[in-house]
Specification:
The complex is a heterotetramer of chains A (349), B (507), C (314) and D (369).
Chain B (H helix, E strand, L loop, with lengths): L4 E12 L2 E12 L3 E5 L6 H8 L7 E6 L11 H6 L2 E4 L11 H6 L10 H15 L14 H14 L4 E5 L7 H16 L3 E5 L3 H7 L2 E6 L2 E7 L5 H9 L6 H10 L8 E10 L6 E6 L3 E6 L5 H9 L4 E8 L2 E3 L4 H6 L2 E4 L3 H5 L6 H13 L7 H14 L16 H14 L4 E5 L7 H16 L3 E5 L3 H7 L2 E6 L2 E7 L5 H9 L7
Parallel strand pairs in B: 3-7, 3-8, 5-6, 6-7, 12-17, 12-18, 15-16, 16-17
Antiparallel strand pairs in B: 1-2, 1-4, 8-9, 10-11, 10-13, 13-14, 18-19
Helix pairs in contact in B: 9-16, 13-14, 13-15
Chain C lengths: L5 H8 L10 E7 L6 H13 L6 E7 L3 H13 L4 E4 L8 H10 L2 E6 L11 E4 L2 H13 L6 E7 L5 H16 L3 E8 L4 H13 L6 E4 L2 H14 L10 E6 L2 H8 L5 E4 L5 H12 L8 E3 L4 E3 L5 H7 L2
Chain D lengths: L7 H4 L7 H7 L3 H17 L7 E4 L5 E4 L1 H8 L1 H17 L6 H16 L5 E2 L6 H24 L5 H19 L6 E2 L2 H4 L12 H19 L2 H10 L1 H6 L4 H27 L11 H11 L11 H20 L7 H16 L1 H21 L1
Parallel strand pairs in D: 3-4
Antiparallel strand pairs in D: 1-2
Helix pairs in contact in D: 3-15, 4-15, 5-10, 5-11, 5-13, 5-14, 5-15, 6-7, 6-8, 6-13, 7-8, 7-13, 11-13, 14-15
Classes of the chains: A mainly alpha (349), B alpha/beta (507), C alpha/beta (314), D mainly alpha (369).
Bound molecules: adenosine-5'-triphosphate (2 copies) and magnesium ion (MG) (2 copies).
One adenosine-5'-triphosphate (ATP) binds next to helix 10 of chain B.
């Protein structure tokens, strides 16, 4: 990620190094998010002024954050994975059926999530990296397969009643000092769910992986130019494989978080989350062409996307299509701004 | 293995669909020698290197490396690096989105973590010793091609290697940079590193190399000690034809008389473009061959791109045959009978996946119009004609152009423009990366065109090539035309003096 | 602007019941009205009821996407609405929201659709009795006295309230009676085109059938398109009995024209009942029943009249 | 001028390959083989799949009926989209994922115009052809929007069209004033069902017509050459006098036109539209069709007939699965398996490995004898 932020201390270098593409896009995203959120607090007030409102965005999107981060990684290597929503959905359903009908427990659920993620990751990664099939088609088939399998596992929603599971699901981690009074005058402490902690942990870990590990840097190199990366001595196939594996594993984990959040398996779970993940990654400054992106940006992408939806509904645009149109407009704006910024920058040199 | 050899290849074979790229090639590299690998375009030099470094799997033969018993198996560039082979490939192979420093270290550091401080420091040191004007933290894509090339070289020489391979590393470097590179090569040689050096510049071969291996049509011609192989013999080995005398070619070329008294075909005044070229005047007469010369990055390409309308023209007027015309995009230029062969063959020239035939007819087809496609037979006739005329080495006119060797791709683009029968042809580095035989061909062709009443602007980094073909030279410096030479002024030393610009203050 | 400190809002709500001048804040979360005629009618009725003139300050939000619904519900709770009126897009995943509502002192009333949660989490539910709709329809079908019932059963979105209720009754009957058979039982996910493909496939395979039991009007329409294409007669005096649900105006017209045989009503007008419940609560009276069913009936092509079409068509 | 005298023929080995090998290498081999396999499967499993009978439809027309007719009929929309998608893929190296949403828009426009803005109309308020033309125009405008983002702002196609993918059905809702219009007149349904007296479904004719149009376009214009050139190397195309941006834009607009015709067929089938559901996920099938046809999704060279066959393969598969009463919701899972098998078999890497295996196998046989 930030490859060129710091000014050079060495005097012999003639010019200040320009901001790297990754850093530039990240900055745009973060600034836009804060401007948006604080305007909402200032001009809309109400719920926006409460911390819980912000924490709810996290609570609702812990799973999406994890999915988007995985998506960003694949996108950084120049690929795409549109199976993540399907995998999430499948994980929820299989976990729910396991808990309810096969006497599963928390451990089996975790194993199921990661197992499904692993299976998808290995197969998709193999097809993409070693058989060189286009990731779009591979993951499209993955999505079809996951969605179809979900209905084969159960067409009807399965609600979980397992107590140990519900205990974890309903655990609220209170954030000290951030509560507010409700209209009955009671103090309600602000809380996050377990999933949020996991999701933020994932972001931090992957940030480090991308920044400092060999594997992480190889993702960028492969995305920048995979032929060059090969000739630079990077195992391109293995790197691509790892990216897809990681993404699917994260989709499995995302599925677990989704399941922890909703507590049921349902064919409609995580519907359209692959597109949300892509949109979040893009807003977060990841380029679909590869080589540029950052998971912190992606986190802000998720937050921005969901903040705008909330703002829209708060403004009284209450039809479903308003929310879609606004999201589309925001996406459009971001893309155009990014495109102009990058085109300009590349023209300058 | 032979005594003193660091690398031995025996019976290497490599086939591409319909092409025998390498057949039974042997190659030996000894400790502390610089070994030139020579051959025409498409002879298989790059392929041999790619087979050696595991980019392509080989179809036969074995490779031995000093210190390893038996044949080594190299399946990827990574294996090659681990075996102590470091390589600069013909096309720049770095990642534009990474920083300069990272490009120098990625894929070859030990350990699983990146120590940014260390690699930035290391890179800064190498950049400084090699005098490369770039910062370690800069994104590589923001650097000029020449700098990128230097970074690639820096990366390769920094590796602790037994074998260093340089595949046409000098094609986009200027003289000083080449000198610097040669210095480096000599240092490494003194340390016992074996160096494989591919180039089309004979001067450079004779300047630094100890031995020469010549390839022709994918086969081995032979290995020679440099003293045993004077230039003329080298060329004839490469071409596969005993030449009576190289001077013949020169004489042949020089006999073509250039007419300089025609009307100006094109006159440009105060032309400037969005690419940053400063307003310049330019004119060329019917039947004239003129040239643009200058140091690398002096703006020659931008200048001709502005004439062709390839960049956005911001100011200036253009007259053709005395009449004012407006050229704002390439199609305008083409309609007025201008052809342009760009310098970046891969990026701007060929349309890789299309067949040789489609590549050849492309420009003429576009001029003819959207609704009037050539018939298949017609297109084939055109293609076959030019494949024969320019001796393009291709399996068939249906072969994708990207699988041709660099030089043959260049010929395809040349064919494309010849087919449009232009009255004014701009050739930007048409001979870059082209073997000497073809070079001479192209020079002759240029003169022939001129004798037929066509005008040609010729850009080349090789001054003697320009001297041989051009009757007038425009010298550029810092994106400005700073002088014009013709007649008896047209000498190497005059040109150098003008480029250096003794009368003006330093840039 | 409805920001305010916790204390202020506490003071505001300490009044036992909102009298005259004070507007009752409601948040209405509904499904997308564009989905079907039923939805459109439902949404319109809600909007006409919860107006300032009627003493409400209402915020609406329509979306089929459960995740969006949940997010907005939370937002409304944060905005301190007094009542959250909820037509959940999916039956599960609402636990957190309901808990939040309870913590915040917001009362939840479900309408149109149920969700899976403990009864204590909401004050009332005003919904259609889907199983009863199914039973009414199946009873009607049984009363036709066919020798054999070969049924193409086209289901709605699996797991939805409507699908479960309408399928349940038919499943029971088919299992119980020897001469009732499924030719095919498939979900078309409320989609007309899918319903058409399913029916088409049965016709193409040459299987015989005499009943189409489609769980909404749109899917019935798709099935009929396939019948028309193959020249299979349907409706009154036709070879195939066509059944639909929802009572769209156009569907009832089909009934009137004798093209279809039966349409089960699904009453979208719950707004009135909800209003009564809220007024009761404001006056301190909790509703006597948790689940309140809206009255519904089924229509037969042979007995339907134009006035039925006008009154009950949505 | 020849300084170098040698026969170029000598060093170039003309590949002498068997007919079988050349055939299997052909781009259309895999999709055709897939189609053949599906046919074979149905022939063995239940030959009645291919039975075609003539029936009288409700209007008294003689009509053909049978699974095979259904395949040809129902594939129509997909074929049209696949054609347009192929061009877009070729020129821009990416796919338009908004075609389903744009179909909703085009269908809404056409139906709304014909209904004269009413919820339900018994006779067309406007010549149907005119409404279709307007629909095509609107749809092309949306195509131009997508194309402009891709061509002028250099946004990756999938991302650029994500915008219309998200907003398209909402725009359709707005066009329809949140209503679901219905057209009851039979003449409106001619295009989606049967013309009076003609027993073959009209969509099949429309498809044939459109395929001929595109055949002619590719044959008598340079559309193919230009889109491929631009898709492979935009810089170089620019220097050869092409306007890459314009050509990309053009392909998106052509796709827009295809989408509108597909949308028209779809609304004409039933005379109604449910814009939040119509043509759901069809973009995925269209992209699959392109890929199954052996076309590279990263652009450049294309074969439009491959995509067309790909579309029929998908519909054939769907119809087969319906026949065997696979639950419609589980359909995607089966589809996915078949798709993966097909793309794996057609992957260059796999093909190379397979032919390599055959070669070495042949060698060992030779050695043994
Ligand atoms: N990837 C490929 N696919 C098919 N043919 C190829 C491929 N790469 C090279 N060839 C063919 O192999 C032959 C040798 O090419 P190579 O690039 O090794 O030549 P070279 O000696 O490096 O020429 P140049 O001096 O022009 O770079 C050529 O005929 C070329 O067409
Ligand atoms: N003064 C300058 N400042 C910044 N960039 C420059 C300057 N001069 C040249 N460049 C850049 O260097 C690159 C090479 O320029 P150009 O192609 O015009 O040079 P040239 O004379 O044609 O040299 P060659 O073709 O041999 O590389 C271009 O990308 C150009 O933008
Ligand atoms: Mg080479
Ligand atoms: Mg140049």
């Amino acid at each position: 990620m930030p490859n060129g932020i710091t000014l050079d201390k060495k005097g012999h270098l003639k010019s200040r190094t320009a901001m790297s593409d990754t850093m530039l896009l990240l900055t745009i995203t973060v600034v836009v998010f804060f401007v948006m959120y604080f305007s909402a607090v200032l001009f809309l007030g109400g719920g926006f002024a409460k911390t819980q409102n912000f924490l709810n965005i996290l609570n609702n999107n812990a799973s999406l954050i994890v999915l988007s981060v995985g998506m960003s990684i694949v996108m950084i290597t120049g690929g795409i994975d549109i199976s993540v929503g399907g995998v999430t959905c499948l994980v929820c359903m299989v976990s729910a059926v396991n808990l309810e009908q096969h006497g599963g427990n928390l451990l089996t659920v975790v194993l199921i999530s990661l197992g499904i993620g692993l299976a998808f990751g290995v197969v998709q990664g193999f097809l993409v990296a070693y058989l060189e099939i286009q990731p779009f088609i591979v993951s499209l088939a993955g999505m079809f397969f996951a969605k179809g399998m979900t209905t084969i596992v159960s067409k009807e929603p399965v609600r979980v009643t397992n107590e140990a599971f519900l205990a974890v699901k309903d655990t609220r981690i209170y954030v000290p000092g951030l509560g507010s009074y409700n209209k009955l005058g009671e103090y309600i402490p602000a809380y996050v769910e377990v999933g949020v902690v996991v999701a933020l942990l994932v972001v931090v870990v992957l940030f480090c992986v991308l920044r400092w590990t060999k594997l992480g840097r190889n993702f960028y190199a492969v995305g920048g130019n995979n032929q060059s990366a090969n000739m630079l001595g990077i195992n391109v196939k293995r790197t691509k494989f790892m990216a897809h594996l990681l993404c699917s594993m994260l989709a499995g984990l995302g599925g677990l978080l989704y399941f922890l959040h909703v507590g049921s398996g349902d064919v409609a779970n995580a519907a359209g989350d692959e597109m949300n993940a892509i949109a979040s990654s893009i807003i977060g400054g990841t380029l679909l062409t590869g080589g540029v992106g950052n998971v912190v940006g992606t986190l802000f992408g998720v937050l921005s996307l969901n903040t705008i939806k909330r703002i829209v509904s708060s403004l009284g645009f209450d039809e479903a299509w308003w929310s879609n149109i606004t999201v589309a407009a925001m996406l459009c704006l971001f893309l155009v701004v990014q495109s102009i910024v990058l085109l300009r920058k590349n023209k300058k040199k | 293995m032979q005594e003193g050899a660091v690398l031995e290849m025996r019976g290497i074979c490599k086939y591409f669909p319909g092409v025998r790229a390498l057949q039974d090639v042997d190659f030996t590299l000894r400790e502390g020698e610089i070994h030139a690998l020579m051959g025409e375009n498409g002879a298989g030099k790059s392929t041999l290197i790619k087979v050696l470094t595991g980019v392509y799997p080989k179809d036969g033969g074995e490779i031995r490396i000093k210190g390893v018993d038996g044949a080594v198996s190299i399946h990827s560039p990574q294996d090659a690096q681990n075996a102590g082979i470091s390589t600069v490939y013909q096309e720049i192979t770095l990642c534009p989105n990474l920083t300069v420093a990272e490009n120098m270290y990625i894929g070859r550091t030990k350990g699983n973590l990146t120590n940014w401080k260390e690699i930035n420091k290391g890179a800064a040191k190498i950049l400084e010793t090699l005098g490369i004007p770039a910062s370690p933290r800069q994104q590589l894509g923001a650097c000029s091609i020449a700098v990128q090339q230097m970074v690639a070289i820096a990366r390769a020489v920094d590796m602790d290697c037994k074998v260093l391979i340089l595949d046409e590393p000098t094609s986009s470097l200027d003289e000083q940079e080449v000198e610097k590179l040669f210095g480096l090569m000599r240092d490494l040689k003194a340390k016992g590193v074996g160096i494989i050096f591919v180039t089309h510049f004979l001067d450079q071969v004779y300047e630094v190399c100890d031995r020469i291996t010549v390839l022709r049509d994918g086969g081995l011609v032979g290995e020679y000690v440099i003293e045993d192989l004077p230039r003329v013999r080298l060329v004839s080995k490469m071409l596969g034809k005993e030449l009576d005398d190289m001077a013949d070619i020169k004489k042949d070329v020089c006999t073509a008389e250039v007419s300089v008294d025609g009307v100006p075909v094109l006159e440009a005044e105060g032309l400037s473009s969005s690419a940053g070229i400063k307003p310049f005047d330019f004119s060329i007469r019917k039947g004239e061959v003129n040239g643009l010369t200058g140091l690398l990055g002096s703006g020659r390409s931008e200048c001709v791109r502005a004439i062709f309308g390839a960049d956005h023209v911001t100011a200036g007027t253009v007259k053709m045959n005395g009449k004012p015309v407006k050229i704002s995009k390439p199609l305008d230029a083409m309609k007025h009978g201008i052809g342009y062969l760009p310098e970046d063959r891969k990026g701007d020239g060929i349309v890789g996946d299309l067949s040789v035939r489609e590549n050849i007819i492309l420009a003429l087809q576009v001029m003819k119009g959207f609704f009037r496609p050539f018939s298949r037979a017609q297109a084939e006739a055109f293609a076959d004609e030019y494949i024969k005329l320019l001796e393009i080495k291709t399996a068939s006119s249906d072969t994708p152009v990207k699988s041709l060797s660099g030089g043959n791709q260049q010929k395809v683009i040349l064919a494309r423009w010849l087919l449009t029968n232009p009255q004014y042809l701009i050739l930007d580095e048409p001979t870059r990366g082209i073997d000497i035989g073809t070079k001479v061909e192209i020079q002759k062709l240029v003169l022939k065109l001129a004798s037929e009443g066509k005008s040609v602007t010729f850009i080349s980094s090789e001054i003697d090539e320009m001297l041989r073909t051009c009757s007038r030279l425009v010298v550029m410096r810092d994106r400005k035309a700073v002088g014009e030479l013709s007649g008896e002024n047209l000498t190497q030393s005059q040109i150098m003096a003008t480029i250096a610009g003794g009368d003006e203050s330093c840039q | 602007g409805n920001s305010g400190s916790g204390a202020a809002s506490a003071a505001a709500s300490s009044k036992p019941a909102a009298s005259g001048s004070e507007l009752i804040k409601v948040g209405v979360i509904n499904n997308d009205p564009n989905e079907s005629g039923y939805r459109t009618a439902n949404d319109r009725a809600m909007r006409e009821m919860f107006t300032e003139a009627n003493g409400y300050e209402a915020t609406f939000y329509n979306n089929n996407d459960a995740a969006q619904q949940i997010a907005t519900a939370q937002q409304m709770i944060q905005d301190e609405v007094d009542y959250l009126l909820l037509s959940p897009g999916s039956t599960t995943g609402w636990d957190t929201v309901l808990q939040d509502a309870k913590d915040a002192g917001t009362q939840v009333i479900l309408f149109d659709r149920m969700l899976e949660a403990d009864e204590s989490m909401y004050v009332a539910a005003v919904v259609s009795d889907m199983p009863k709709e199914g039973v009414t329809a199946v009873d009607w079908l049984a009363s036709q006295g066919l020798d054999e019932y070969n049924i193409i059963h086209i289901q709605g979105h699996m797991g939805s309230d409507a699908q479960v209720g309408r399928t349940g009754a038919l499943d029971e009957k088919v299992n119980a009676e020897g001469n009732w058979n499924y030719v095919v039982q498939q979900t078309a996910d409320w989609d007309e085109a899918t319903a058409q493909q399913i029916t088409q496939s049965v016709i193409d395979s040459g299987k015989s059938f005499n009943v189409i039991y489609a769980e909404n009007d749109g899917m019935a329409r798709g099935a009929v398109a396939a019948l028309d294409k193959a020249g299979i007669t349907h409706g009154v005096d036709g070879d195939v009995i066509v059944m639909g649900f929802d009572c769209n105006q156009w569907a009832l017209q089909e009934l009137l024209a004798g093209n279809w045989n039966y349409d089960g009503q699904c009453n979208p007008f719950q707004a009135e009942t909800i209003n009564e419940i809220i007024q009761g609560l404001e006056a301190g009276n909790a509703p006597t029943e948790k689940i309140i069913y809206t009255p519904e009936q089924g229509f037969d092509a042979t007995t339907i009249s134009q006035s039925d079409v006008d009154t009950f068509g949505i | 001028m020849p300084v170098i005298v040698k026969e170029p023929k000598e060093q170039v080995k003309k590949p002498q390959e068997s007919f079988w090998k050349r055939m299997t290498r052909h781009q259309l081999f895999i999709p055709l083989a897939a189609l053949a396999l599906l046919v074979l499967f149905n022939l063995i499993a239940d030959p009645s799949f291919f039975a075609v009978s003539i029936k009288q439809n409700s209007l008294g027309n003689p009509v053909l009926s049978g699974n095979i007719i259904s395949v040809l009929d129902n594939a129509s929309e997909l074929v049209l989209l696949a054609i347009g998608m192929t061009l877009v893929t070729a020129s821009s190296g990416g796919q338009d994922i908004s075609v389903g949403a744009t179909m909703a828009i085009a269908g809404s426009v056409i139906l709304r115009m014909v209904c004269g803005g009413q919820v339900s109309a018994d006779s067309p308020c406007m010549p149907i052809l005119l409404a279709v033309l307007i629909g095509i125009f609107v749809s092309m405008a949306f195509g131009a929007f997508n194309g402009a983002l891709v061509a002028y702002f250099k946004i990756q196609p999938m991302v650029a069209t994500l915008i219309m993918f998200t907003a398209g059905r909402s725009i359709a809702a707005w066009i329809n004033n949140n209503e679901l219009p219905i057209m009851n007149d039979v003449s409106f349904k001619y295009a989606g069902t049967f013309l009076p007296g003609i027993p073959v479904p009209t969509p099949i004719f429309i498809t044939i017509f459109m395929v001929i149009v595109f055949w002619a376009l590719l044959k008598f214009t340079n559309l193919g050459l230009y889109t491929q050139a631009v898709g492979i190397n935009a810089n170089s195309s620019h220097l050869n006098g092409l306007n890459p941006q314009m050509i990309k834009l053009l392909t998106y607009m052509i796709l827009g036109a295809c989408v509108a015709v597909a949308g028209f067929i779809r609304v004409s089938r039933s005379g109604s539209i449910n814009y939040s559901r119509i043509a759901e996920n069809i973009e995925m099938d269209a992209i699959l069709a392109v890929a199954l046809g052996g076309n590279s999704l990263s652009g450049g060279k294309f074969n439009i007939y491959g995509s067309i066959i790909g579309a029929y393969v998908i519909q054939f598969l769907t119809t087969t699965l319906y026949k065997y009463e696979v639950p419609s919701t589980a359909l995607p899972a089966y589809k996915a398996v078949v798709v993966i098998i097909l793309v794996v078999l057609s992957a260059p890497v796999v093909r190379e490995k397979l032919s390599h295996m055959k070669r070495t196998a042949g060698k060992t046989v030779k050695e043994a004898t």
